[in-house]
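Postdoc handover notes: sequence design on the structure in folder B. Input tokens:
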């Protein structure tokens, strides 16, 4: 992770997506729970368990942040029919995560270009 704020928002997004998935599971939709679990295992295997370089972690963090934002955006689009406010808040949060991920990827590339 590039910064403490990025890590904090990453964990907020991860928790938010877990909440969305669990609400769906409460309604009987278990496939998103299994997809979340598989993604969680892959994500933390790459970022926490495997002996990978800092460069790989600084690339994987923003990529997973973008994927988490896309998952929340999916729930935001899905909620458009039931209520505007909930959908708008989900889309705003998802957009924030996606923009954060893109900025982190762009900042990482610029930082690597200057360090050589």
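Designed sequence:
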């Amino acid at each position: 992770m590039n910064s403490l704020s990025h890590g904090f928002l990453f964990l907020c997004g991860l928790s938010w997506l877990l909440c969305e998935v669990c609400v769906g599971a409460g309604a009987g939709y278990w496939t998103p729970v299994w997809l979340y679990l598989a993604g969680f295992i892959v994500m933390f295997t790459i970022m926490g368990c495997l002996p990978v370089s800092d460069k790989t972690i600084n690339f994987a963090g923003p990529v997973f942040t973008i994927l988490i934002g896309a998952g929340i955006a999916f729930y935001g689009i899905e909620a458009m029919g039931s209520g505007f406010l909930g959908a708008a808040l989900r889309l705003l949060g998802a957009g924030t995560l996606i923009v954060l991920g893109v900025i982190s990827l762009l900042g990482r590339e610029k930082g690597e270009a200057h360090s050589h």
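Context for whoever picks this up: The CA atoms of residues 6 and 62 lie 9 Å apart. Don't rerun without checking with the PI first.
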